[in-house]
Structure to design on (1000 residues):
């Protein structure tokens, strides 16, 4: 009979039943999806890094190298399992064409390498170690979609041609956020093409399990081994790998929290309204002697069944949606391997969501226990105050706007040109990189001179980066990559303090500040290079802390005159702005053409292209998540409003009928409903916008700090935030209102007379 | 004949003031009084649907007032039957399912026997062919008789009825009251609140309540068809005396 009672109740309250089920399914789906994607991402990355045997410690180095000293260091350390020196032949992007696409606008450091012997393998889609034949090249898999490449395409380096034999997964440099990309060739080809590029070294170490990576890094620095380049560790590589897709997953997770909140709220209101409607029936059940516990369990069984259906639908939907959303994860990092654990976790997560909802249902149902049979039977009491059903409309509108705005704001922030200032890059229109050339300093100064004489240029700043030794308070030495120049011209974003404005001032990236345990206002000793192996200490006051993800995130900034010395320049950057920004494209093209013919390691790019190149993957993923958020938010709002307005109309049916008897038209009654709905909808939108900007920023700040962007502020698109988002919400709400209010036309004047 | 119900000094707020009375097994008592006098409140408190402030109610040897909500619910399920003015039924169930609902709840294993008993009761009360009908497909009188069948399912010792004919037309009310007389003749005690002097006149005893106190009592003896007119006159006269 319980079954029949529940089934008949489903039939009688189709809308409420379906809505409850949708909420339960949507909550389970979103959390399930987050877990599934997170699980596959993390497991894919782990299996890729395991198969490829990613190094634990990696020192990039430009310049001469003493292999014997490194080998000696390695052999004398008990924590080293294996060491290798891998060669990387940096190529000029202007000289590169793949499948007919020129890489001139590509912001990555592209270069050739050969397969490693001991670890750090470059592997194919099936996790096999690739062995290229002569004349073949394997291209990083991230370029496959970016340039629409296929096996058999031709890669051209100057006049030399190689055939694309396949695509490789590089456990270190798969992410677009890693600034280099390795192309794999046969050893003979490497030697043949060697004169076309400039060589860098990756000094790689695989450590024994349980080794202290920080202790190793310090020992490496103390041993005065080659260090002319960024240092990268296993955990940093893993983070880079996880970030581009991780952001999308975090956005989905955020959406799932909002949906869970909405579901609990809605289901609670639906139950309370249902109890109000069923008051007399509950009273009767109590009167005839059915215990409170049994009545509660009768209602609870209904929700238990709905939750089971919702859970199954949600988990299935999550598995289906995860397919398209996980395409990039599979392409970049390969299959997750054993998915059964991930599916089990997804099911557990969905069960937990259903558990939370059911707990709330159980508590809400408890309301009916507090009243005696007589109270419910004769309407002497209510299940709490009669619920204002418009209030949840307001709250859910706010939640829906919040759900739409947070991913939008994250996306607009990452796409905005200013965002680079959170990443340690000056805000300018154009950036010129001078690297991998015989004499960086000379080349850079020559470019700077040329720019200075260019009428179109409004302002520019030249920066040279060199490696410096510093001593930490505990006596250990520490390598600092200091970018020297005028940092007042195109400043980055400072979390604390300001740029180094005076001689003897230094600004540190947040990672360095944390690692060195130094704050703004503190003083550190940095050794100037006087040449001939002589060094002189310079006392530097920390003027500010900034966030940076470039070059491993461990950088520093100072004025030229603080370190007017003989330290070799590792690379140079010129930031510049034009008088007329509209000429940027032509300007960049002209300069690219000029420098490509010189083959001098100079890259010219618009900052906007730099952003697309570096964060394109992340932005695309967040856009996917944003589209999902908009669809979910609108769908949820539509269902909730449809439901709540139906409940309001049902509750006020007698009043509406009376109004009709007194001469009101359906349009009059509908207008009153519209006014009342707007009274809650519009403030809901306002609250949602506020929440999407202020607390949303805090929340997004937590997400973005994982990308290295600290002290973050939303860069919002006002049209999207103040016009499009409210418009989308209003359309969804208007549609729901229109459908709901149709019911008013079916209320007749005689009903109130019959009821009385 | 022994007492089935003994009420001593029962009080509830300002509505009931130290009410005491007894009821014998197989007796049929009507409670009358003007609106707001406390009739229904007395019924709810005696049956344990509401919690009295003071006093005691003995159903057989069980004291009801001091029992917990769940204990009272169990007692209502096993020993009491209820019929209300509004035909409180579950709209999602058909007539026979509504009738067997509390009984099946109490005794899930004997479902088939319970359905057979329900059908027999429905036949007794002339609604046997309506078993599968939805509750909105039958008349008020038929529905109320179904409620009486439901109250009889657990073979209760006593039935509490609150204005069972209040919402019915004359013909339907007659059918319902005949149903009550039938179950009373078969031995079930009935305590009924009513506004209808004709219905009250068919009961063995009438208690008249005013301002929360029993102001008078009329003993009419067991109802027979032959003395119907005489009882109606006596009742009417007595009610006039009571200020009805």
């Amino acid at each position: 009979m319980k079954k029949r009672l529940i089934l008949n109740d489903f039939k009688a309250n189709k809308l409420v039943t379906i809505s409850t089920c949708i909420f339960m399914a949507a909550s389970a789906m979103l959390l399930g999806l987050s877990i599934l994607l997170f699980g596959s991402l993390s497991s894919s990355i782990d299996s890729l890094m395991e198969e490829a045997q990613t190094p634990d410690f990696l020192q990039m180095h430009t310049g001469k190298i003493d292999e014997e000293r490194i080998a000696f260091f390695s052999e004398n350390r008990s924590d080293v399992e294996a060491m290798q020196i891998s060669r990387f032949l940096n190529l000029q992007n202007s000289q590169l064409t793949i499948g007919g696409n020129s890489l001139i606008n590509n912001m990555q450091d592209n270069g050739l390498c050969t397969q490693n012997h001991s670890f750090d393998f470059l592997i194919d889609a099936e996790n096999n170690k690739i062995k290229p034949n002569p004349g073949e090249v394997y291209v990083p898999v991230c370029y496959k979609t970016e340039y629409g490449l296929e096996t058999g395409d031709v890669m051209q380096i100057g006049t030399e041609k190689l055939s694309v034999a396949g695509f490789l997964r590089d456990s270190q440099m798969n992410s677009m956020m890693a600034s280099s990309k390795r192309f794999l060739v046969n050893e003979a080809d490497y030697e043949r093409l060697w004169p076309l590029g400039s060589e860098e070294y990756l000094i790689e170490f695989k450590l024994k399990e349980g080794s202290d990576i920080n202790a190793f890094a310090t020992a490496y620095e103390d041993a005065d081994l080659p260090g002319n380049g960024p240092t990268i560790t296993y955990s940093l590589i893993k983070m880079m790998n996880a970030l581009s897709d991780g952001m999308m997953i975090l956005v989905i997770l955020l959406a799932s929290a909002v949906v869970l909140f909405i579901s609990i709220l809605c289901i609670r209101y639906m139950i309370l309204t249902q109890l109000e409607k069923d008051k007399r029936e509950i009273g009767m059940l109590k009167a005839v002697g059915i215990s409170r516990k049994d009545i509660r369990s009768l209602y609870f069984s209904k929700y238990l069944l709905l939750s089971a259906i919702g859970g199954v639908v949600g988990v299935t939907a999550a598995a289906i949606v995860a397919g398209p959303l996980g395409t990039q994860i599979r392409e970049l990092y390969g299959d997750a391997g054993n998915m059964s654990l991930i599916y089990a976790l997804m099911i557990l997560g969905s069960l937990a969501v259903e558990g939370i909802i059911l707990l709330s249902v159980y508590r809400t149902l408890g309301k009916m226990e507090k009243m005696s049979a007589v109270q419910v039977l004769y309407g002497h009491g209510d299940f709490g105050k009669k619920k204002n059903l418009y209030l949840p409309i307001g709250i859910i509108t706010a939640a829906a706007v919040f759900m739409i705005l947070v991913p939008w704001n994250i996306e607009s922030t990452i796409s905005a040109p200013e965002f680079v200032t959170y990443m340690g890059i000056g805000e300018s229109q154009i950036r010129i990189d001078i690297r991998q050339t015989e004499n960086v300093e000379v080349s850079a100064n020559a470019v700077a001179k040329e720019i200075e004489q260019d009428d179109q240029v409004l302002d520019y700043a030249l920066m040279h980066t060199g490696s410096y030794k510093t001593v930490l308070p505990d006596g250990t030495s520490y390598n600092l990559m200091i970018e020297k120049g005028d940092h007042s011209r195109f400043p980055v974003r400072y979390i604390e303090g300001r740029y180094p404005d005076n001689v003897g001032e230094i600004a540190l990236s947040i990672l360095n500040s944390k690692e060195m345990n130094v704050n703004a206002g503190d003083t550190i000793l940095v050794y100037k290079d006087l040449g001939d192996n002589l060094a002189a200490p310079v006392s530097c006051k920390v003027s500010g802390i900034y966030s940076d993800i470039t070059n491993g995130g461990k950088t520093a900034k100072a004025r030229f005159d603080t370190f007017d010395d003989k330290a070799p320049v590792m690379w140079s950057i010129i930031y510049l702005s034009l008088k007329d920004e509209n000429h940027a494209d032509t300007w960049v093209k002209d300069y690219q053409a000029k420098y490509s013919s010189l083959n001098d390691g100079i890259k010219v790019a618009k900052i906007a292209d730099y952003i697309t190149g570096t964060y394109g993957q992340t932005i695309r993923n967040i856009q996917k998540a944003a589209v999902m958020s908009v669809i979910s938010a609108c769908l949820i709002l539509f269902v909730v409003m449809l439901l709540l307005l139906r409940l309001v109309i049902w509750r006020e049916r007698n009043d509406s009928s009376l109004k009709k008897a007194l001469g009101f038209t359906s349009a009059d009654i509908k207008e009153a409903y519209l006014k009342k709905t707007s009274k809650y909808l519009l403030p809901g939108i306002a609250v949602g916008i506020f929440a999407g900007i202020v607390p949303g920023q805090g929340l997004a700040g937590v997400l973005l700090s994982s990308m290295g962007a600290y002290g973050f502020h939303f860069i919002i698109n006002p049209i999207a935030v103040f016009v499009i988002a409210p418009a989308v919400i209003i359309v969804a709400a208007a549609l729901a209102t229109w459908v709901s209010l149709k019911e008013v036309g079916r209320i007749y004047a005689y009903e109130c007379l019959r009821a009385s | 004949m022994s007492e089935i119900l003994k009420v001593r000094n029962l009080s509830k707020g300002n509505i009931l003031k130290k009410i005491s009375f007894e009821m014998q097994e197989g007796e049929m008592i009507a409670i009358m009084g003007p609106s707001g006098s406390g009739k229904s409140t007395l019924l709810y408190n005696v049956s344990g649907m509401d919690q009295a402030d003071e006093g005691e109610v003995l159903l057989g040897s069980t004291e009801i007032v001091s029992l917990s909500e769940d204990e009272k619910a169990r007692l209502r399920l096993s020993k009491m039957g209820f019929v209300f003015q509004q035909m409180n039924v579950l709209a999602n169930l058909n007539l026979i399912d509504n009738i067997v609902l509390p009984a099946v709840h109490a005794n899930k294993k004997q479902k088939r026997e319970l359905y057979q008993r329900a059908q027999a009761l429905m036949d007794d009360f002339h609604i046997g062919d309506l078993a599968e009908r939805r509750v909105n497909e039958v008349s008020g009188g038929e529905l109320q008789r179904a409620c009486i069948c439901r109250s009889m399912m657990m073979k209760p010792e006593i039935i509490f009825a609150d204005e069972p004919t209040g919402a019915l037309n004359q013909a339907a009310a007659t059918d319902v009251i005949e149903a009550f007389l039938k179950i009373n003749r078969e031995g079930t005690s009935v305590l009924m609140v009513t506004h209808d002097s004709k219905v009250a006149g068919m009961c063995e005893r009438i208690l008249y309540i005013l301002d929360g106190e029993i102001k008078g009592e009329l003993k009419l003896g067991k109802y027979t068809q032959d003395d119907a007119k005489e009882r109606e006159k006596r009742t009417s006269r007595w009610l006039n005396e009571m200020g009805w």
